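haha ok so turns out i had the wrong file open the whole time. this is the CORRECT one, sorry everyone. sequence first:
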Amino acid sequence: MSYLYSLYDALVSIAVPADKARAVVDAMEHDMGTTLATKQDLEMLKQAMDGRFALVDQRFESLRNDISRDMAALDLRMTIKLGSMFVAGIGLVLAAMRFWI
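then structure:
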């Protein structure tokens, strides 16, 4: 608040009438009180953002778990299909060799 008194003194020293200097200081004080963020405003914003980030982290963790589970199931299916194709291929090769020999 001392800067407002300094501003008032500076305005009065350059021949601004006292009532107009007071109006400038009051307007500046009002604007600063309504438009600038206070420490409490910033702390509330920090808490809100921490909550949002925690929610996003939970959603990413859930997605990560879902993808991991889906990839494990896909890995198992691909292994079974590849094994089946390998067995069928070997069977066909053996049948073809038996037919030609």
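Residues 38-101 form one domain.
again sry for the mixup
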